[in-house]
Structures are given as structure tokens and as C-alpha cells.
């Protein structure tokens, strides 16, 4: 729903096998507790009375504003009272809080017998993260000493000893320990090279943000490390560090960034005579993986890497060490020690351990299987839409259908979540002794993760593991993997429950699935093929038609005051997404013959089609106080709902909106 990472590359197996129930009607009887009610004509005279239906109905009633005509302002009709009834900014945040509460209960309970070591590590991590009474400075000092010490803490004395290794080894040592933007970034990356997918090393120039306000923050820490510190001289060294960083900024800003093609180190070896990358890589991979001349590397911006050695003059050793220390310190102190941020950080750094603990307690396997079926039906619907889109030429259509066929999906949790060999490879970290500070523990975990990632070079690309946290209320599509991932947090109200009617589940999670799948065909995703390769598979004339069709959204959203170009991918995903979800739901009904589902209590007089849009709208309820980020490609929630309704013929038909009504304008945008 939110993220479309563009720089990940893997290929695809289809995950999770699911079995379709032999009879939908029999399946429905198992799920719903319902009563007869002749008022619910559109629902086969049945009203669902189970806990989930009652709960969702209560939410809908609480949040809507019935006085508003849905054809006038659909968003306000469904969510007008949300700000009065909810303590949270949105359901996305409310869902996150709910997961955090459940996880907190698990972490604070007594360990299970035979609990895995990594679960214990999560308990220690959480406890230490929340501990605000211990003095963190001795632990931070140890970490700074491990990278050769922070010279500014010895300002005015001769207590700092200049590191005696080369700049190459010094920088490699920091990159082994911390994932931070220290002159450049190194990542293991999966690309197509020599006609096969390979894990290669990508080296990217970076510039960390560091300014005078950061300087003031850091200045406060000096005397906490060393009460006898000469503050004046310490501050002077910080200013000098900022000036040095400014020199780096000038160099960085004045070099162009362009992707260099992957090549073996043998090929690159002679490109950068002034920085010994071989020495750097040898130190970086020492004890982790074999770096040799056959290792494939891609440098972004050869120009930068031919020049940045100018900063690494022998007289700059102290400045480089100061900059490294400042960056490490900022990196570590970046984890605010609040319950929320500890949870977020932990769900990222220890994503498999925490997800194992959570999912063992809270996962409903049937719910996951049912949601997986939904993904298959949405794919089927998209395949059909592509077949019927007359503006596609035959070759582009065939390429598009192949992309749908090959699209992988992972629903609820990764297939290897309980594969202890995998989890052990990545999170087999010795227990945290009581003397270890939170930051030392966080650094140890980070080092293990960096080493695990670097160890992937020359290995087969991993197509199964999730890169993003599992316990999130979200979903995403990876263009370079051609894969949709539905995260665990969506398995709760108002997004999904297996005991709710399908018109609810298809309008909520079904829409989210469809939205993500459409990212494969949005204005960026469409340039990746069925195998995640960055190739243009569109015939030129068809590409021109695509641009014409999508320019309709650009104009429409720009007229609403949002950046129509920046948000185009999301808008395509939203508008086609709702159509796919609706079509997939209709497909489900058709498959089961005369099948109808029960009404939600007190919603007997609505139609199933109206309910579909009402619950779709409802999942987007927010109190309007979510901070707007100018670079966010997602438009605000109210605009998302409004525009989807305005472009949807199904919506205006369901609510019988007059042609002149605001939610039913003459001009509608559509792709297929
Ligand atoms: Zn999206």
C-alpha cells in the first residue's frame, strides 16, 4: 500500500499453496452465524451476527456521517465522524498500535519452555531499549573506541592516537560495523549480469545530512562522555568537522551520479588508481566472504570515485575520524527510546524473531489461505482485463499477461519464517549480558545483519525472504522481483477477517492486493518485465497510448491540488485497483452460482455493491491530522477516496449518483 522499493532484484517462485473450497455456499455456512431477516433482500434475507460482523458494523456506524449524501462527498459520508470516535490518526496507525500491544504482552511474559535464543534476544532488546535509567555513555564510548576513538573527546590533549591503518581499511572497518553513509555506501544487490541473476556489490556515493543544528545537539553530549572535557576546544573541533563535511558536500554536489554497468573486479581494478578498493574490499569481506577478481561490482558514478580521495589527505586523518565518530553517534542516538520507536526498530532489526513470536500466538492459517485465494482471483481478473483492453497490441498484451502469470506473492508471513536454519544464519547472536548497554546490543545486531547481507555475494539470489518488517500494517510490490507481499498487520479489522462477508474483504484487503498488483503496471513498474529485469517490453505506439491514458490522472489530481506527476503511480494503482478488486469479487460470486452473502447488522437495506464501496472508504478514515510530506508519492487519504469514487462507474451506479453530482463527473479516467 505504501512502499514501492525500486532497487531490489530477485526472481519469483509462487509461494503458499492454497485450496479453494469445493463449495462456496458450504464454506459460507461454516463462517457466518446469521439470522433470517426479510429486510435483507439483497443479502438472501440473511444478516450476519458473528462477533466480527457486529464489530465492523459498529465501526461503520460510529464513523459515518449519515447526513451527508454519498454522491456529494463520499469520504465525509463514510468517515465524517472518525475524528470524534477515534483516538488515533488513522486505521493504519490504530492497527500498528494493536500489533505493538500484542507483541509487548508476549515480550513481557515469561519465556516459553525451549524458547529459541533469538526470541530471548528480542526480549532483552525491548527491555534495554526502554531502560532510561542506565548511563548510556560508557557503552557508547566503547563503541567509539572500537572505531579508533573520537578525537574531539580528547580536544586540547594528546589522548587520541591517530589510527595507523590506511584510509581504505579504516572506512571498511566502519562499513563492517555500521550501515551509514560514510563517503559511500556498499550493498549486495541482485541484477541480471552475464544472462543470469547474480548477487553483486553496488557502491554508491553518499552524503549524510549534517548541519549546524546537528552540531548543537552533539555539543550537549561531550561533557557526558568526559566531565573534564575542554568544551571550547571540543566545540571548535565539531565546527572543524562540519567544515570538513562541507568540503565533502562540494565534491559530492559537483559530481554527476550515473550507474556504471556491473563488471568483474578484474575489469574495474584500474579505474580508481587513488583509492585502493581492493584493499578496502578485502578488509570489508574479511572472514565473511571471498572477494576476488571475479567478484562482480557496480559503481554508481565513476567520476566521484576518481575524485573523493582528495579528501583523504594524510593531514585529514583527525578530521576523518571526527566525522566517522559523529556519524556513528548520530546513527545510534537516532533510535529514540520510546515504546513506539523501540517496537519499530525491533520489528526491523529482529524481524524474523519478533514475527515468529507473534505469529505463533496470533496467526490464523485459514485466514492466510483465504487471503491467498483472493490474490489469485485478482490476478485472474487482471489477466482478463488485459485480454479485453483493445488499445494494447498483441505483443505488449502477451508480455503483460506473462508478467501477471509470473507474478509471485507472499501473504501474511514469509515462507521461511519458521525455517530455523535461515533464522539462525541471520540472528544467531549470543545473549546480551546485563552489563551490555542497549546501544552495544543494537550495534551487535547491526553487525550481524551487515555480515549476513555481505555474505550473499556469489550465492544464489534469495527469492523467499522478506526484506521489510513482517509485522506491519502494509503491503508492497517489488518491481525487480515481480512480487507482491501482504504484511501481517493487515490481518485485522477493518482490513480483513476471514469471518466477514467477502464483499468486505475484497473491498479492503482485496483492494490493497489489487493496488499492489497494479504497481507492476504503473508508470515506473511497467518498465520491469515478468522476471524483474529492467527492460522496456512495450511497443512504442502502445507506450504512447499508455501515456495518453495516464495523463488524464495527472491532470485530474493536479486540479485537486496534489502533485499529479509525483503521485501518478499511486493513483494508477488506486483507480485500477478498485476496479480489479470489484471485478475479482464479482468473479467469486459468479463462480458460486446464486451465491449471496449476509448483510452486516443494521445495513440490511444497502446493496452488496454499496457495501463494497462503504467498507473500501472506511479503511481510509483518518482524522485529517497526518503530517503531509511533500515527497510522499501518496495523495492524502480524503483525495484518494474521492478520486477513486469519481472515476468509478461501479460506484456511481451502486449509489445511483446523478450525472451532475460531484462524485459522478462526466470525465472519468481509466486505463483498462
Ligand atoms: Zn502504492
UniProtKB/TrEMBL annotation:
Family matches, as InterPro entries: MetalloPept_cat_dom_sf, Peptidase_M13, Peptidase_M13_C, Peptidase_M13_dom_2, Peptidase_M13_N
MF-aspect GO terms: metal ion binding; metalloendopeptidase activity
Domain annotation Peptidase M13 C-terminal: ranges: 474-671
GO BP: any one term: protein processing
Superkingdom assignment: Eukaryota
Cofactor(s) recorded in Swiss-Prot or TrEMBL: Zn(2+)
Residues making up the signal peptide according to the UniProt record: 1-25
GO cellular component, one term: plasma membrane
Pfam families recorded: Peptidase_M13 (PF01431), Peptidase_M13_N (PF05649)
Alphabetic keyword roster: Hydrolase, Metal-binding, Metalloprotease, Protease, Signal, Zinc
Positions of the Peptidase M13 N-terminal domain: 70-414
Family designation: Belongs to the peptidase M13 family.
Stated name of the protein: Peptidase_M13 domain-containing protein
